[in-house]
Amino acid sequence: MSVIEDSIQPPPYKIVLLGESSVGKTSLVHRFTSNTFDVHIANTIGAAFITKLYTSHSDANRKVKFEIWDTAGQERYRSLTPMYYRNAKVALICIDLSNFESTFHTAKYWIQQLELNNSSNADDKPIEIHLIGTKYDLVQSQTTPKISQEDIETKVNELIESHGNIVKFHTTSSKEGTGIVELFEDIVVAIDDDFFKSYYDKAQSETDVQGGPIGSILNARHAATSGCC
Amino acid sequence: MNINDTNALNYQISPFITNLSLSEDELISTTTTYESNVYIGTTKGIILHYHHFDDVPEYILISQLQISEMPITRILILPVSKRVVVLAGRIAQVYSLPELSPCHIKRMKDINDIALLRIENQPDSILVLSPTKVRIIQLHGEQIKIVREIHYTNAIAGDSFNPANLIVIADGSNYDIIDIEHNRKIPLFEYRTDQEVSPILTSFYANDTNQSELLLTISSDVSTAIAMFINGTGDVTRGTLTWVGEGYPNGGVVIEWPYALAIFNSEEKSKLVVSSLESLDITIAMNLSDFKQSERIEKNEAIETDKHYSINKLDKFLSIEDVSVKHLLSTKDRNGELTQPLSRITTDILIHNQKEIWSIHKTNPIIEIHNSFMHALETENFEEFLKKDISHLAEESKNYAIHLQFLAVLHSKMDNILTFALKQYLNGPIISPKLVLHLLGGSEYKYDKVFVGLEKIIEDWKDEPDLELLKRYITALPSQYWTPELRRAYYRNATESEVLEFFKKDSFWNSYDDLNKELIELFITKSLSGAILEAYETLFEHDNDNRLQIASLYANILSEDLSRKHIHTAIKLLGSNTLTDKDYGKLLLEVIRVDKDKGVEFMRSKAAKRYNDINRAVTKELSDSSKGFAILSIELLESSFLEDTENQEIFDELLETISTTMISSTVCSEEAEASYDLLLREYEAINSLEKDKWPKISWLDFVSISGKSKDSETLFVLYLKSFELCWVKYHKYGKVYTTPDHKLFQYHQFIAQPNIEKLLAFHDYSNAETVAIINQLALPKQTFYFPKFTPEQKKIEEQQVQQSLLGIFKFYLKLYEEERKVEPAIEHFVETYSKSHISPVDLLEIIPNSFPLIYLLKFLEHAIVDLKSSSRETNIRKVVTKSESSRIKKLYQDFLTV
Ligand SMILES: Nc1nc2c(ncn2[C@@H]2O[C@H](COP(=O)(O)OP(=O)(O)OP(=O)(O)O)[C@@H](O)[C@H]2O)c(=O)[nH]1
Ligand SMILES: [Mg+2]
């Protein structure tokens, strides 16, 4: 065995998607990771994990490996969700714009849950929340929406004002592929410089000392065991 | 673990996760568990994550994670640091538990195998085997720390004792002991000869020697394998275990003390071989197949399967659904719908083939108890079965066992059947009353839910119904559990006295619902009249919504056959003001028939006003036969009349009724008639003109005073009432009532024809004088109906009044002349009327001279005073002169000098 070191990989960045069932979480992830859209997509069971390397369009140095947990919105799996948002940097809480009231309600539930979670492990940096209004294509084409665009905005803004860790509200359409790259670009751009710096510093120091701390143990052991084996 | 026969073990193989979502060419490669999570690695590099939610019995797939392109060969749980090391394609990667997020820890490449070491104070130490080294590593945060490193060529398997001061490693052909502390390698032995096999090292805790041991397998030849046992000091602990003719345990070996369970996969079949570590003999050999249900581990016929099975032991027990008792403890309702048992068991042995996973666990004791019962049923001997201790069973199993015990005592007709039938748990009787009813009452009674394991037994139950026992059961069962069927069954089979006794406890007689209607019908068919009445009475008391309807039915039933016993009830019903006129009348007559006094008393005091008409009709009908009714009839009429005294119709009816009653034989008996005659005589005596007592009492006042004290009070009251009515009729309505031709009405005639002579003859001087003045009779002082009525007075000529009064006076004088001592009457007359109607002079003129002056003193005194004042002295003098009585003259002189 040998502890291997590939050329330094971009830093992992954990993201969790939360929201009522069928708001389009999985569709959003699929559009982002494979640029596809499937009308007949099945409901997620438990959770799915997808990774995606992403380089910022504006700054090629900002490169991350998104580790995305796409959770199941169905009530049955609610109790599991905390194990997926643990240690996540960003939560994408999705609201279906074509079914605003109930999905907004669930979104608020998740915001609360995350706040409880944040307050219980105070040392970690709190999860940043992005609110995603999905299926924008559906409300655009609507002539008589159940709830007006302005009302939605008012409600969302109220929510953002009352919760400090909500960063932004985005509207997306996985069907038409709009707003999604922008969302992830926003996330990458917003990452602290320190995050990249400390990651690369650490990785570099490990490659520099070839066999560094490990090597020294190795050598010590080698001497000790050679007599036996 | 007990072996109850030589061919079976008290262990089951039960399906655990058998519907994995695997693609066609994807196979299970390894399994492991952590808390309520099961992780299944596949040959496609995927880990299936199953989770147990508290509210569903089975484990549910919650994620499928693509870990690698290569098969997953090991999933190593680090319970303390909550991480998992996954080995796939010789690369080990670390993930977090329980969800398997990647940990950003460097991958380890070129790894043969990994295993967990139990080093004291160093939890989660990992033994890492690579082609050139054996390492012990630990994870510190995101860093891998190598604790020990030993050069060793081609380590392919390893395990340690607990605690791990020694580890045993296998290379391509040998087992070696490695002393970690001292970095020493002690070669053990070769595990293979010519056959290509994988080494198997199984650490376990030996309950007999109380130490950690390792089992190491050795392939002797193609068909035979053996196992060696060593302890932490490298010593052999027991003899070898041999598997002659079974091949090599390539599916793994686990220890479930005191057994070693080994799986042998060959081209054509897979076999589980269980050997005893105590005797080192093979206990059971069982061929494995894709078991669809829980199977006991027992010797069986060869089953061909080309699937490769593996066995592995878990670090911790896993709670799983106990499918082994589904065929007993599931319940089935009438619609055939099954409810799975809640029963769970723990297991720490899993076996899997390429597509499905089973668990191996101890046989649930209820299976043994069930089998024992079946055996007892066959042999008709329940003695052994009934001795079985069921106290340690879990609730569901215990309930099942109690069912069996009940069936056992029932079938063997023991005394304590009810004790079992009535056993209760927190939420009611353990054995459903419907089931007991089915067994005791007969198969026409359907039970609705039953343990699947009992279904056939109960369907085949041949014992005759025992209705007496059934009744005792129902009576003893708390009433809240009486289902409609139970009540029906009880009433159907009970005698009347049992029914009545049962009523006291049966609180379901509170609504006139279909069942209670049906039960009443039943009582009717069985002619249980007492029960019928009781039923109606109870319903009547409790079902307010249907009160009127029940009242009617109840009244009809009561009327049909009323006995003295139910008079009270009937009266209560009559008094409830719920009956229709018709029902009321019918029942009332019935009450009267049975107990006249009670009936009369009721009508008199408690009957509601709205029934007055009926009451009257009833009493009228009956009044011929009884004085009581006659009077009551009058009372009822009166009560109506007093409500509306202007109602002439009732007035007439009342008068008529009183009059006819008065002379009816029931009231006017011979005795009463004699009383009347006596009263007349007494009147004459008391009113005698010879007595100096004025004014004389009128006849009616006399009757009203003296009649009360007579035996025939009824008669006299009626007499007075009839008189009052006649009088009012005449004076108010100007109508003459034609009285019956009876001597009792003699006096009544004076109302229309006030005849002074006749009144005098009647000795009613008082009224004779009244008539003389106002030409009508005076009413008695006491009235019944019209206390305030005063008739209009007709104007009468004063001359006529004088005439009449003088007539009366002459009557008195006549008597005087007949030498009767009526001086007081004369004295009264002159004193009374000289002041108003007749002049003293006129009076003096007709008083005979012989009349003693003494009686006239007062009269004269007044008269003279009068005369004086009116200067009519001359007239007086004339009169006095005329009188030749010297005494008068003398008297007169005296007066003049006054
Ligand atoms: N028109 C339109 N439909 C969408 C869009 N996004 C998702 N949908 C549809 O919405 C339905 C649900 O989408 P999913 O992505 O499965 O929703 P989800 O949030 O993952 O649901 P769960 O897995 O149950 O939590 C699917 O039929 C999608 O095709 C969108 O942007 N526009
Ligand atoms: Mg989904």
Automatic annotation (TrEMBL), chain A:
Coiled coil: none
GO function terms (MF aspect): GTP binding; GTPase activity
Gene3D superfamilies associated with the record: P-loop containing nucleotide triphosphate hydrolases
InterPro entries attached to this UniProt entry: P-loop_NTPase, Small_GTP-bd, Small_GTPase
Entry keywords, A to Z: Nucleotide-binding
Top-level taxonomic group: Eukaryota
Protein's recorded name: Uncharacterized protein
Source organism phylogeny: Eukaryota, Fungi, Dikarya, Ascomycota, Saccharomycotina
From TrEMBL, chain B:
GO cellular component entries: cytoplasm; membrane
Domain named CNH: residues: 25-310
One of the GO biological process terms: autophagy
Keyword Protein transport found: yes
Cellular location(s): Cytoplasm
Main location: cytoplasm
Lineage: superkingdom: Eukaryota
Family matches, as InterPro entries: CNH_dom, Vam6/VPS39/TRAP1
Membrane-spanning segments: none
Protein keywords: Cytoplasm, Protein transport, Transport
Protein name: CNH domain-containing protein
